[in-house]
Amino acid sequence: MGNIDPAFVQSTEHRPKSKVVEVNEIPVIDLSESRDESLVVSEIGKACEKWGFFQVINHGIPSELGKEVEIEAKKFFGRDLEEKRKVRRDEFNAMGYHDGEHTKNVRDWKEVFDYLVEDNAQVPSSYEPHDKDLRTLTNQWPQHSVDFRETMEEYSREVEKLAHRLLGLILSSLGLAADKFHGCFKNQLSMVRLNYYPPCPFPDLALGVGRHKDSSALTVLAQDDVGGLQVKRKSDGEWIPVKPCPDAFIINVGDIVQVWSNDKYESVEHRVVVNTTKERFSVPFFFFPAHHVTVKPCEELVNEQNPARFREYNYGKFFANRNRSDFKKRDVENIQIQHFRILD
Ligand SMILES: O=C(O)CCC(=O)C(=O)O
Ligand SMILES: [Fe+2]
């Protein structure tokens, strides 16, 4: 079995327990068009408040498309490292293949491939507040297959529509106009990530992804039937597995919705555990706005009794700041919305 590279080892308090409670608690919401919209809105509002996570079924995305994504992803990750590294991410281009990601400075047991939903998106050149320079992020596609690119592009177009619909439902549940932030996603930085978690001989010491919150507005995640995602239950801090549900997407509130809602809906911590025998695939779609967007609590939700709990921040600078840590293990914590908090 050999020894584990210490870079992967979680500190004792963050290691997964070998026995987890098998509960089926994460709400499942039926998005069929025939359902009464106000009922769907109220179910989504409750799920966002209680869990920050829910699953959706009858969402309109054909299951064949999800299967094709999985087939293409499997083919890609099954190729030689040398091949995969031809589309490797680097400090200048954050899109492509990567096998050395760290979450909270511990290495994740996974390989990833990232691509933008809108290719050639503009981002700030640096995280320095006064530097107004922009640069362009460009997708890198593997040369071995045209199907890979076509499948991934079709998938992101479909999921983008679902993300807009879900954001509208979430905003309605807050009493806001469903299209209030539609314009923020023109020239979006949204990204799809293909996650591949190889079997791991040390599932008690390492994690597929360490505990974290997503910096998106929301995330639309597809997972295969292996399982491994765990969510921190708000009521008691217990790690709860999200049981795979065929053809469902897992939706989670991201940091931006937390700020927009002024803490009414929280972006909840989650992580991925690995296992000794089965590889696992998952595909998150991170719904990120354009670089110029200013994120702040919605005026409609703020008043004297409930003042703004966050200072505003520029999304592009936040994104650029996060990207700093992708290639180097850094000793300081990643930027978080907590750094903009003015009230608890
Ligand atoms: O693999 C999963 O189920 C979740 C991955 C995740 O949380 C992420 O990539 O941000
Ligand atoms: Fe995540």
**Helical residues, percent:** 10-25%
Query: Per CATH, what is the topology?
Result: Jelly Rolls
CATH architecture: Sandwich
Q: How many structural domains are formed by the residues? A: 1
Arrangement of strands in the largest sheet = 1-2-14-11-16-9-6-3
Low-confidence segments: none
User: Largest beta sheet, briefly?
Assistant: 8 strands, mixed
Strand content: 15-25%
Name the bound molecules.
2-oxoglutaric acid, fe (ii) ion
* Anisotropy-based shape: globular
Order of helices and strands: EHEHHEEEEEEHEEEEEEHEEEEH
Question: Overall mean pLDDT score?
Answer: 93
- How many strands? 18
Structural class, by secondary structure, is alpha+beta
Tally the helices.
6
- Cα distance, first to last residue? 47 Å
The level 1 CATH classification is Mainly Beta
CATH superfamily: B-lactam Antibiotic, Isopenicillin N Synthase, Chain
- What is the radius of gyration? 19 Å
Question: How would you sum up this structure, described in words?
Answer:
This is Fe2OG dioxygenase domain-containing protein. The structure is a single chain. The chain is α+β, with helices and mostly antiparallel strands. It has a single domain (6-340), classed as Jelly Rolls (Sandwich). The chain contains six helices and 18 strands. The strands form five sheets. It has an eight-stranded mixed β-sheet. Helix 1 links the parallel strand 1 and strand 2. Helix 1 crosses helix 4 and helix 2 (63-77) packs across helix 4. The longest helix is centred in the middle third of the chain and has 28 residues, at 146-173. It binds 2-oxoglutaric acid (AKG) and fe (ii) ion. 2-oxoglutaric acid binds next to strand 9, strand 11, strand 15 and strand 16.
